[in-house]
Amino acid sequence: MFNTLLYYRSTYRLIVVKRFVALKSDRELDAQIKSFNDKKQFKKTLELFDKYKENDVKNLSSFVINQALKACTEMRDLQRGMIIHRLISSRIKTDSYITGSLIHLYMQCGDVLRAQSIFDMSKNKTIVMYGAMMKGYINNNMAKKVIDLFSQIRNPHEVIITLLFNACAQLQTAHALNLTKKVSKEIPKSFFSNPHLLTSLLDAFMKCGDVSSAESLFNNSKEKSFEKNPDYRWYLQDDEINRTKENDELSANDKVVFEKAIEFLELSN
């Protein structure tokens, strides 16, 4: 009996030590791969990813995979991104952040059909995924699809509204102007404290030919510079995003913060 208890006690300690070492290793990898991307050393990011994926790609964190996809996106390396996509295909159904990164990769590389396919097959579409699709359509001069997609979103936040105004500015049609006016009247007043949104709205009015509305918006705005509001800069801090990503069990509020952070980062690129 004593020997049995001693065995289980030793085994438990060994398991705890192994888990601690694995957790420490994961955090070191997260920090290293992020450092390469921050320094725009994207080839080193992918070399590091290749080194670790040889062991077991299933054990790599979502953060590491997203960093690898980010490197592919920045380099416009579609072929490398497709290889990573195949390696982690089983995780797409359960990880909306990886799905969002894949959509962004394909959109930035001009493969709209593949991005659309990933989006359509996703059962639980998040605001991050909608944002990636909308931004991708705008970048690929397909603004009309942004309008169609916007109609599917309930309670859009500021970034989604900003992307809608960007699409309307690209369309420069009477319908786009009417939609801009309608949405600008319906959104919460607090949204008008966001200079990103104000700039996009002003641009939509001007490009759709409504100079009087643009002048009125400018004259009534307290933020004449239309610069990025310092109150929103914390969304752009990588540390905030990393702390949220490292937490496997996100609270509802943390998920909103994470999604807004990603959207603001993508919008500012």
Automatic annotation (TrEMBL):
Organism in which the protein naturally occurs: Rotaria sordida
Record's protein name: Pentatricopeptide repeat-containing protein
PANTHER family: OS07G0578800 PROTEIN-RELATED, OS08G0340900 PROTEIN
Sequence ranges of the PPR repeats: 194-228
InterPro entries cross-referenced by the UniProt entry: PPR_At4g14850-like_plant (IPR046960), PPR_rpt (IPR002885), TPR-like_helical_dom_sf (IPR011990)
Record-level GO BP terms: RNA modification
Alphabetized PROSITE patterns for the sequence: PPR
Molecular-function GO terms, alphabetical: RNA binding
Highest taxon, organism lineage: Eukaryota
